[in-house]
Amino acid sequence: MSIRSRTDSTPYDAELYAAVHLGTPGDIDFYVRACAGTDPILELGCGVGRITTPLRDAGHEVIGIDIDASAVTKARQQGLDCRVADMREFKVRRRFARILLPYNSLYCLLCDDDLVKCFICARQHLASGGLIIFDAYAGDALGHEDGLPYLTGEMQQSPIDAISFKAQHWDVYEESRWDPVAQRVDAIYTHVSQTSGETIEATIAHRYLTSHQLPEILERAGLSIISLHGNFDSQPFNPESELLVVRAGRWR
Q: In terms of domains, do 183 and 222 share one?
């Protein structure tokens, strides 16, 4: 997943991102199961290869793409077939049985038009009978408690993790800015070295979706929902579900 800094000009260091953001519990096993018996596989927003690696290790023919060249370099150093490309307009001379967008990657596209471009491009690379599979946190339950917004403006910075990175120990803090009207969350991460005091800041900008918005966006791209679940164990989605886990396929 391509992540930009607070100024939207300097990439979030790919290894630092991978050290902090470890995915949603259960997602690796889910994608390995979802791809069982199928090939080839394409992962959009592959980063340094957190999902691509276990798929490769399970014997799959898998290609990853990411807009962050440094992330792709790290993935290639692990022997992965990863390429630098924008998920809105990539070209791979293959058709794929599975196209994956794990761990909120779709939310890095901040408007409907970009989402549709991504899904159209994915559909064009989908083999007959193939599936596009993605997961993201669900927006349905955000924004209201007893009918009133429960989160607005800026949240206080809070410690969330301690990590090792480049032979140093770092404390990681998060502060979120939320705009419920725009469905926009900017999560600002501050990484502070316990050794040198160096500080690295980066922001992950998300435009989240609700389950009600997905069908229209997918339809614009010539796709429809095959299944919608609220977790990785096929629990039916409901308004209180924390996750959107979606399988989509062509309708045209």
A: no
Structure pTM? 0.91
Cis peptide before 40 (omega within 30 of 0): yes
Residue-number span of the structural domain to which 189 is assigned = 153-207
Percent of the chain beyond pLDDT 70? 89
Q: Which of 191, 207, 223 is the last residue of a domain?
A: 207
154 pLDDT more than 90 = no
For residue 97, the domain's CATH number is 3.40.50.150
Do residues 108 and 48 share a domain? yes
